[in-house]
Write a sequence for this structure.
């Protein structure tokens, strides 16, 4: 990753067909790694071919904790996955809580949605936000996605509005001291190329979401900190679980 002093600019990024093709090729490996009683140290990245990755296992178990909270005393859970690719978190949810029915909805770019509808016809995927917003979901999920939106604050407000109870923003690139800044993320691996990404000030992000009537319940850590060449601070990959405030809490706080 490298600091981008000019801020946001337009690049092809995630619109490239090669990324979709790489995920399609990797799909049978992902499905196979989720079967049976072995560890769930898996990921949808094409270069992650094992089920023994400990970082991936941490990500998976963190999601399992969140999903279990959302599913408490329920037989079914409605999920909105914002930037959810072809729907791999649906597979994760089925592996983690097989007895809970997932009403799964996902939003992403057209190429991912087309492939996802073929691989998982039982879920709803759309590249039009209007198809999915305007209602609320038991769990709203956004994993390694929010920092790839040019206006991440506007997206955070959309997610908060769609949250009936739980909002889980996972694998978010954050900084503790510096103001939010833009970086170029160069992967150059298995069809993945170059992407612009926000490194978001942690307190600014939490404040943005809490102003929408949600409250931080749990914070997560995933991988080690990463150096962004030329940036004022190293980047940390963290997760945040928010819960909608009860009417009584909101009234007491004066909001």
């Amino acid at each position: 990753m490298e600091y981008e002093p000019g801020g946001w600019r337009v690049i092809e990024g995630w619109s490239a067909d090669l990324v979709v093709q790489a995920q399609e090729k990797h799909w049978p490996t992902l499905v196979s790694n989720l079967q049976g009683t072995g560890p769930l140290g898996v990921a949808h990245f094409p270069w992650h071919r094992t089920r023994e990755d400990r970082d991936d296992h941490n990500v998976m178990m963190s999601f399992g904790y969140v999903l279990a909270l959302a599913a408490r005393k329920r037989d079914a859970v409605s999920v909105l996955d914002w930037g959810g690719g072809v729907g791999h978190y649906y597979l994760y949810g089925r592996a983690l809580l097989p007895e809970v029915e997932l009403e799964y909805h996902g939003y992403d770019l057209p190429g991912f949605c087309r492939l996802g509808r073929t691989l998982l016809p039982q879920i709803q995927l759309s590249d039009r936000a209007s198809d999915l917003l305007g209602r609320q979901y038991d769990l709203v999920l956004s994993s390694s996605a929010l920092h790839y939106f040019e206006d991440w604050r506007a997206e955070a407000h959309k997610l908060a509005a769609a949250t009936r109870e739980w909002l889980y923003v996972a694998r978010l690139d954050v900084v503790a001291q510096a103001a939010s800044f833009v970086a170029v993320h160069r992967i150059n691996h298995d069809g993945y190329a170059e992407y612009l990404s926000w490194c978001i000030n942690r307190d600014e992000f939490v404040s943005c979401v809490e102003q929408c009537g949600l409250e931080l319940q749990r914070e997560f850590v995933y991988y080690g900190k990463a150096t962004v060449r030329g940036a004022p601070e190293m980047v940390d990959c963290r997760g945040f679980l928010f819960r909608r405030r009860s009417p009584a809490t909101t009234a007491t706080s004066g909001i």
User: Anything to note?
Assistant: Residues 250-255 have pLDDT under 50 and may be disordered. Strands lie at 2-3, 76-82, 101-107, 124-126, 137-143, 163-175, 181-189, 192-201, 214-221, 236-244.
